[in-house]
Amino acid sequence: MNTEEHNAFATFTKKVNWHLGIGDVSAATGVSQSQLRYWEQKGYISSEKEKGQNRKYSYDTLIKVFMISNFMKEGFTLAAAVSRAAEHRETMELLRQSMVDRFQGITTVDGFPAINLGYVDAEKTKVLYLVVKDGHTDIKMIQNK
């Protein structure tokens, strides 16, 4: 997906109302509704609530609840789990932005699937690839002819 396609998808997802009720979030994550209310009271998560209606959680909040819950299962306190989830989110956003900025397409290098990350020099003679093989990713720079 190029930058233009990614921006179009981001715009689309903001327009779509992907909100879930508290019961849906609880069922999907295994976090009780009372815990969700407590986390919201503490400011760890948020919901949208219009007058006379139930809480509605975004897909983004669903993922956050899932991460917090998993970190707590690993033995972290609630506050530490929230912090770890925020750090994870920042890392994932950096990776996402890096890939959107650098992604030039998918090809094959030496018979293996490879992600083209584009030129790495001002002269545009060297291209950087992430080559996926044998369960890991290698970095390969190829001189353009």
UniProtKB/TrEMBL annotation:
InterPro entries: DNA-bd_dom_put_sf, MerR-type_HTH_dom. SMART domains: HTH_MERR (SM00422). Coiled coil: none annotated. GO terms for biological process: regulation of DNA-templated transcription. GO terms for molecular function: DNA binding. Pfam families: MerR_1. Residues 19-88 form the HTH merR-type domain. This is MerR family transcriptional regulator. It comes from Secundilactobacillus silagei JCM 19001. The gene is merR_4.
